[in-house]
Q: What sequence folds into this?
């Protein structure tokens, strides 16, 4: 039986994993009509992603889900750490946890994916602006001048749905990417690893930390995920096979140096080949790739799912501007410009960490043999935890490119302190900025008629921080210095004033970057 769905939706999302659900919620809350198609009837019940960045929780503030999601998290507490160790688990270097990040939430948070994913799917299913077809697999799609038409089927019927744009969140083996014949750009890391997730069932002394064990005999990783769970990842040595590594006795022997056998049960065991790759293009007319369909990364930074969610944060403010005819469709050209470069930086960083682990293991092996240490990789100083690197910035797109640098503020998320005005209750700064663009200043800003027209067209909110008191955290240095900052809806800094740049210049640059309708 073939059924045509009469509604032409604003956006179709293919794949309702955590990234697809996250995007559906953001787009629906922006007022768009969203249709979601997911071939699996149930949420996957075993863990995969385990770390959620504070900036992702921050993005949920605007849809009133941040506190609920944050309550599911188990952050690294002050004094707990993530870093590198030798074969004896002796600390080499890394970073201690911070109780709060510049974005207003703990930077790194452990969670249980089945719990979070079920919550996100439930919120997606119940949203009045979302129509879902669960258990339906997309079999083909056609890009047309004004829409994308998708055919999908379950065991009982075929359906045809149409949407003005389609976002493919259909995983690393994305049928959408393959149908579009979009190749991967390989970043040169293909390693087989055994991943072991356990449930701790008795008292234990495993620390709440993340350790990259640079053991010459076998590089491996220990991750204290959300209680009562733990994860280990073991790199396969030459000649080892998946079948050998997945035997219970093999797994038990690998865990023996860490934990007694009677204190845990196995939750998941799998052998994966870790990849590092970015799709050659992320947009083909009305179809956009996101999540694992657009990028794959080794897990050393815990950035796979986080990077995918950043993709949807980016689209969740651009698609409404296009669909509401505030900006031209060419605004979507900035999506791959911004996200592909950012994802490339993150994946490259994860690859560098993998190479660093290999180097540290080789250095210890040389010490054992009384030989000179090997030369370090070029990325040695920028590949570890706590070596001065935060998330990479946006390097092109809808941003004032002349101000971009690794030390600046433009292209980065604006810091989010807790603030109060007079006797009002303290709030996170984004609450005062709102969901759209914001022009933030110390004192009033005089604007030309042309600049005011840009403010009106994009509904830019003017925010004066002069009377605000910071209760926790701090404003960005340029704000404290009295400059004016223009922030995008995703809270990325478009640009700021300086001796050479005035507020009118910022708004002129924004108009030149954002193609108005």
A:
């Amino acid at each position: 039986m073939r059924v045509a769905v009469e509604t032409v939706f604003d956006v179709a999302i293919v794949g309702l994993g955590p990234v697809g659900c996250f995007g559906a919620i953001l787009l629906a809350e922006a007022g768009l009509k969203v249709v979601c198609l997911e071939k699996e009837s149930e949420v996957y019940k075993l863990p995969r992603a385990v770390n959620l960045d504070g900036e992702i929780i921050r993005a949920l503030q605007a849809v009133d889900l941040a506190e609920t999601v944050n309550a599911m998290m188990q952050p690294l507490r002050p004094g707990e750490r993530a870093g590198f160790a030798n074969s004896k688990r002796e600390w080499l270097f890394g970073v201690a946890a911070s109780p709060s990040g510049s974005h207003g939430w703990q930077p790194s948070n452990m969670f249980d994916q089945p719990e979070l994913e079920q919550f996100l799917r439930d919120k997606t299913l119940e949203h009045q602006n979302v129509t879902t077809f669960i258990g339906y697999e997309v079999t083909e799609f056609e890009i047309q001048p004004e829409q994308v038409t998708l055919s999908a089927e379950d065991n009982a019927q075929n359906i045809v749905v149409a949407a003005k744009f389609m976002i493919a969140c259909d995983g690393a083996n994305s049928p959408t990417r393959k149908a579009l014949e979009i190749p991967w750009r390989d970043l040169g890391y293909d390693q087989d690893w055994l991943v072991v997730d356990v449930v701790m069932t008795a008292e234990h002394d495993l620390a709440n930390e993340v350790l990259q064990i640079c053991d010459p005999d076998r590089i491996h990783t220990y991750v204290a995920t959300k209680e009562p769970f733990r994860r280990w990842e073991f790199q396969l040595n030459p000649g080892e096979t998946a079948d050998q590594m997945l035997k219970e006795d093999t797994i038990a022997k690998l865990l023996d140096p860490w934990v007694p056998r009677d204190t845990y049960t196995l939750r998941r065991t799998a052998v994966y080949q870790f990849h590092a790759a970015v799709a050659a293009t992320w947009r083909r007319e009305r179809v956009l790739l996101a999540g694992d369909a657009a990028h794959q990364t080794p897990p050393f930074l815990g950035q796979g799912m986080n990077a995918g969610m950043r993709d949807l944060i980016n689209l969740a403010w651009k698609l409404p501007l296009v669909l509401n005819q505030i900006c031209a469709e060419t605004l979507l050209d900035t999506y791959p410009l911004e996200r592909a470069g950012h994802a490339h930086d993150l994946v490259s960083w994860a690859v560098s960490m993998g190479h660093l682990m290999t180097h540290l293991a080789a250095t210890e092996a040389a010490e054992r043999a009384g030989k000179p240490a090997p030369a370090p990789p070029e990325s040695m100083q920028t590949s570890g935890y706590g070596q001065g690197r935060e998330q990479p910035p946006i390097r092109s797109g809808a941003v004032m490119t002349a101000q971009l640098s690794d030390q600046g503020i433009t292209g980065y998320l604006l810091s989010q302190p807790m603030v109060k005005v007079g006797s009002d209750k303290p709030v996170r700064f984004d609450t005062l900025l709102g969901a759209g663009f914001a022009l933030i200043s110390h004192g009033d800003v005089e604007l030309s008629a042309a600049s005011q027209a840009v403010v009106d067209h994009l509904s830019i909110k003017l925010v004066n921080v002069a009377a605000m008191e910071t209760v926790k955290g701090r404003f960005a240095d340029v704000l404290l210095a009295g400059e004016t900052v223009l922030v995008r809806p995703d809270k990325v800094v478009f640009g700021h004033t300086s001796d050479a740049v005035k507020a009118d210049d910022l708004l002129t640059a924004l108009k030149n970057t954002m193609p108005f309708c």
Remarks:
- Residues 148 and 163 are 5 Å apart (CA to CA).
- The two ends are 42 Å apart (CA to CA).
